[in-house]
Design brief:
alpha+beta, seven-stranded antiparallel sheet, three-stranded mixed sheet, 20 helices, about 50% helix
Length: about 475
C-alpha cells in the first residue's frame, strides 16, 4: 500500500508542477471571479460548429427514439478542449463549485481525514489537483451549471474523435431523465449521504449507460459514424507522457475501488427492465432506492428495506473533552464498505464481499479540534442484519489490523479491543453488543479515551432482520 501511495504522490506532484508553470493556468486564475464562477467556464467553453450541431441533433433524435420520449428542445451545448479542462482542474475554487459542490466537499474532507488516520495516505493534494490527472481523451457532463442553464459539455480536442458521439448520446440520455424527473428533486442526488447519493448516481448513470448501449445498435447509428468527419481516436506526439501519467493515476487509485456506477448501474437497470419495462425504471425515479444495498441486491427493493435506525454519535466528542468542530456525519453504505476493505485496507476481494453483504447500516463521524485542525478523531459504527454477518465483518477488519500490529490485542473493561498505533494515527477496533466500532485518532490518549467512551455507550440490539 505504501509503495502505491508513493506512486500516486509522484503523479500528483507532477501535476502540481504543471499547474504552477503552465501560462494558461495563470491566465485563467487571473480571470477567475469568485462572485461569477461560471465566467471562467465560459472563457474556455466554445459553442459547437454548424457541422457539429448537425450530428449532435441526430444523436439526440436517436437517443430520444430509443427511450420512447421526445426531446423537443436541446439543452445548451458547449465544447471544452481537454487541455483547458486540465487547466480548470488547477483552480481549486472552480473545481469545488463546478465538479464537486460545497456540501460534498465537506464530506470528502471528513472521509479523507479518517482514511489518513487509518493508513499513511497523503493529504498534501487538493481535490482540484487530483482532478486534473483524470484528463480524458473525450468525455462529457450534463449539469445545471451553478443552478443556471441546463447544459451539456463535451470534452475533447477538435476535430472530435468518433467517441464524442457515444458521449453525446449518454449526456442526451441525462437530459431526457432530467426532463422526466428533475435531478434537483431526486432523493439523495448530490446532497444526501455518500450511500444515498451513490444509489441515485447508479440509477442515473446506469439508465444513461443502458440507453447508450441500445443507441449504438440503432440502424441509423452506423451511418452517422461512417459519414462523420472525426479526429484521432488515440493519443499521439507530445501528449503521450501526459496521458500515460493520467492512465497510471487512474490505475493506481482504482485498485480495489467500488464498481463503476456506469457498468454496475447498467446491470441494475437491465435487471429492472427484464422484470418489467421502461415503466418500471420510471417508477424508480419517482421513488429511488434508499441505499446502495438495494442497488446491489434488487430483491430488497420489494422488501422496502431501509437502514437500521442508529443512535446519534454527536455526544461522543464531549466525552473526550471540548473544543471540537461540528462533526462531519455520513452514511457510507454497503458498496463503500466493500470498496473500503479492498482499496484502503487491502483486504482480499472475496473476504471483503462476504463481510459487506449483510450490511444493515453505518455512520461515520469525524471531528477536528477547532484550534488545531491537525488533531482529529473519527468514529465509524457498523451494524449488520444478522450475527454471522457481523462476525464476517469483524474477522475481515481484525485481519487487517493483525497484519499491521502482529495480532496485538488487549482487554478494556472486559471487552477485547484490537489496537494499532500506526504512522498516521492510533486505531482501535472493538465490538460492543451488536455493533462494530472502528476508531481512529491523532493522539494515543485520545484514541483510548474514545474507546472507553464507546464501551460506555448504550448497547442497542440491532439483529432483528430474521
Amino acid at each position: 500500500m505504501q509503495a502505491r501511495d508513493r506512486q500516486i504522490n509522484d503523479v500528483l506532484r507532477s501535476e502540481r508542477k504543471w499547474c504552477e508553470t503552465d501560462p494558461g493556468v495563470a491566465e485563467l486564475r487571473d480571470a477567475f471571479d469568485p462572485y461569477r464562477p461560471e465566467s471562467i467556464y465560459l472563457e474556455v467553453a466554445e459553442l459547437p460548429t454548424e457541422e457539429e450541431m448537425t450530428w449532435l441533433a441526430e444523436v439526440a433524435s436517436i437517443t430520444a427514439e430509443v427511450r420512447g420520449e421526445e426531446l423537443d428542445e436541446l439543452p445548451e451545448i458547449r465544447i471544452i478542449d481537454r487541455w483547458d479542462l486540465r487547466r480548470l482542474g488547477c483552480i481549486e475554487e472552480f473545481v469545488i463549485r463546478w465538479l464537486v459542490g460545497n456540501a460534498a466537499e465537506r464530506r470528502l474532507e471528513g472521509l479523507e481525514a479518517f482514511k489518513h488516520l487509518l493508513t499513511p495516505l497523503s493529504r498534501d493534494f487538493s481535490v482540484a489537483e487530483r482532478s486534473g490527472v483524470w484528463l480524458p481523451l473525450v468525455g462529457g457532463a450534463y449539469h445545471a451549471v451553478f443552478q443556471s442553464a441546463r447544459r451539456i459539455t463535451i470534452i475533447g480536442t477538435r476535430p472530435l474523435p468518433e467517441q464524442a458521439a457515444d458521449v453525446a448520446a449518454h449526456e442526451f440520455a441525462h437530459a431526457i431523465q432530467d426532463r422526466r424527473s428533475p435531478f434537483g428533486q431526486l432523493r439523495g442526488f448530490g446532497t444526501d449521504s455518500t450511500d444515498a447519493n451513490g444509489a441515485a448516481r447508479w440509477l442515473v448513470e446506469g439508465e444513461a449507460t443502458a440507453i447508450t448501449s441500445i443507441v449504438l445498435q440503432h440502424p441509423a447509428w452506423s451511418q452517422l459514424v461512417e459519414e462523420g468527419q472525426w479526429g484521432e481516436s488515440e493519443n499521439a506526439g507530445d501528449e503521450h507522457q501526459v496521458f500515460a501519467n493520467a492512465l497510471r493515476y487512474n490505475n493506481l487509485v482504482s485498485v480495489g475501488a467500488q464498481e463503476s456506477p456506469y457498468s454496475g448501474g447498467s446491470r441494475f437497470i437491465e435487471t429492472i427492465r427484464e422484470a418489467g419495462s421502461w415503466g418500471a425504471v420510471d417508477a424508480l425515479f419517482m421513488d429511488p432506492p434508499w441505499t446502495m444495498e438495494q442497488i446491489m441486491h434488487p430483491e430488497k427493493l420489494d422488501q422496502l428495506e431501509k437502514p437500521i435506525k442508529l443512535q446519534e454519535l454527536t455526544r461522543l466528542s464531549k466525552l473526550v473533552g471540548g473544543g471540537w468542530s461540528i462533526p462531519v456525519v455520513d452514511r457510507m453504505g454497503e458498496s463503500f464498505f466493500r470498496g473500503f476493505l479492498r482499496r484502503t485496507l487491502g483486504v482480499d476481494s472475496t473476504a471483503a464481499e462476504l463481510a459487506a453483504v449483510g450490511w444493515g447500516n453505518d455512520q461515520l463521524s469525524v471531528w477536528t479540534r477547532q484550534d488545531n485542525p491537525q488533531e482529529a478523531l473519527g468514529v465509524w459504527q457498523l451494524v449488520f442484519d444478522r450475527g454471522f454477518h457481523h462476525q464476517q465483518a469483524w474477522t475481515a477488519l481484525r485481519l487487517w489490523i493483525a497484519t499491521h500490529s502482529e495480532g496485538e490485542a488487549r482487554e478494556a473493561l472486559g471487552v477485547p479491543v484490537v489496537g494499532w498505533d500506526g504512522p498516521a494515527g492510533f486505531v482501535r477496533l472493538l465490538q460492543q453488543g451488536e455493533s462494530i466500532w472502528l476508531l481512529a485518532a491523532s493522539d494515543r490518549a485520545l484514541a483510548d479515551d474514545l474507546t472507553l467512551a464507546i464501551l460506555d455507550f448504550p448497547q442497542t440490539p440491532y439483529w432483528s432482520r430474521g
